[in-house]
Amino acid sequence: MKNHGKLFAMAGLVLALAPAAGAADRAEVKVGDAEAMREMFRGFSPRGQADLSRLRQDDMQKFCSTKGWEKQKVQVKQLEKEQLALIKYPADGRLMGDWRNGERIAQTGVGMQFSDAQGSTAGGNCYACHQLARAEVSFGTIGPSLQNFGKTRGNTEANQRYAYGKIYNPQAYSACSNMPRFGHGGILTEQQIKDLTALLLDPDSPVNK
Amino acid sequence: MIRNKLPAVLLAVACLSPVAAWAQTDTVKGIERYRELLADGNPAELWEARGEDLWKQKRGPKMASLESCNLGKGPGVVKGVYAELPRYFKDTDRVMDLESRLLHCMTGIQGLDGEAIKRTAFGAGTNRSDMEALVAYVTSQSKGVRMRVPTSHPKEKQAYAMGEKVFFYRGGPHDFACATCHGESGKRIRLQDLPNLLDRKDAQRAYTTWPAYRVSQGELRTFQWRLFDCFRQQRFPALEFGSDASIALTAFLAKNANGAAFNAPAIKR
Question: Which pTM was predicted?
């Protein structure tokens, strides 16, 4: 251990000259957020519709990328409040679309990859992570099962507002949720989110059968 | 990681679908059986054989073989090298993975065009990738060797820490990070099981089975490809082949697999 002392003293000298390399000499190497973002920008190149601006993190992305975010209770509450304010509800006041379209949107996962045609309609890919209609056995489990969502909760206006808002921006209800902000991120249109709201809540939807 | 506010009753309802559960188990079993059948005579061997030729042939403007290439255990040594990559290389003063190191040797020793190699790094049908073949050969020489990725050099520590940051980096229109799909155990996308790369056992099983012959593509895919295609699905821009970000992420994942016996080139769906 005494030798290590000398080593560290030397490292200190080097550190003064080369801070980047010196930082790594500490037992615990820490990489800062700004450093990580710079490395990401260096490590990717634009392709198709995916340009480098996609690597620029907003406040939510930055916060939810840090270790131990869940322990920062005040910031978590603040984030949910800010994200809630970002939800834009339909101007016509109608939240329910057609569940048949909703089922199609839930099934398809194309859109916004650099391999997808620019401007093509994106899907919600809900089945990738959620169980929905009973007939569809190929569903993922990253998110909770949504089978009988409307049957269990009731097709009330409050639940329609919750479902629409949750799809539009899940961060408003559950900070750092894994679910994409389909409305806020510009992935789905207002009509598509209405159709998905109907898929969840319409009594005739296969989700509630 | 996720805090769900959906009531527990929904979870209880989910458990009441034995038909779906049975159908899924059956599908998963079928896929496993298919994999077992294919493991005998893995087409990856064709890539390995071509890779061995490419390693030994005198090629490029400098008409040199790669037998003087140092992959970490001395010039020309391929046995067991992949189990200790990525690692720090003094001559480049960089942490490098196998692909970036091969690129370094192909341009330096053989005088080949690095940009052309990067452009053709992922083969497609008749446009075969020399990189994929070389990776298949070199990795095959680590089969059965225990993973021992080093983090003793400061730059290796730095790469590991950076790789961890990259793993948790959320971005793009979908807010995805690697951790979105690979940060919890026992999860699936549709019917596809997802390894939790923060769990030692899962990380070991996942990392030690790349590269792999992908049946659905008819190609042998390297770990660089695995990362590239994950980021595509994350809706990120294109991961630069051999970039420091890609090497850092590989270092993070490879180190998490330490202690397990390397078992690739493998075969996957």
Answer: 0.87
